[in-house]
Amino acid sequence: MKPCPSCEKGNLTEVEDIANELEGYIFIVNGQRCSSCSEEFIEEHAGQKMITTAKKLGLWGEPLKLHRKLSRSARGTVLRIPTDIEKNLHLKGTEDITIAKIGDRKLLIEIE
Ligand SMILES: [Zn+2]
Q: Distance from the CA of 66 to the center of ligand 1, in angstroms?
């Protein structure tokens, strides 16, 4: 058994129920927990497995991307927000937003 690198008093025991948050989702992974200070240490390969799983689920690196076409109205260019995003963000349609231009081909829309 290894002594705890955090408190140096307790011993580390193998556990399989460490809750770790990644990109807003909780993953339960293997690791070690200190018997004294309860500090948890995730195994390196468990951390990597978690990232692989997150990638498979599309939670990692790639934000929710949907393709939409812009349209023209008399007052300018219109972007319709897809219904699922609308629901997900609880949009009422009356919110103020800010649109930021990032680089040459990206816009970031923030709901205020
Ligand atoms: Zn400890």
A: 45
Residue among 7, 62, 55 nearest 27 (CA): 55
Q: How far is the CA of 14 from the centre of ligand 1 (A)?
A: 13
Question: How far is the C-alpha of 109 from the C-alpha of 78, rounded, in Å?
Answer: 13
CA 1/CA 33 separation, integer angstroms:
11
> 93: how many CB neighbours lie within 10 A of its CB?
6
Q: Which residue shows structure tokens 């934000």?
A: 63
Domain locations along the chain: 12-56, 71-111
Q: At which residue do the structure tokens 């460490």 appear? A: 18
Q: What's the gap in Å between 50 CA and the centre of ligand 1?
A: 24
Mind listing the pLDDT tens digit for each residue in 38-47? Answer: 999 988 888 8
Cα separation, 108 vs 97, whole angstroms: 10
pTM of the predicted model as reported, rounded to 2 decimal places: 0.48
Q: How close is the Cα of 6 to the center of ligand 1, in Å?
A: 5
Residue among 16, 13, 17, 15 nearest 1 (CA): 13
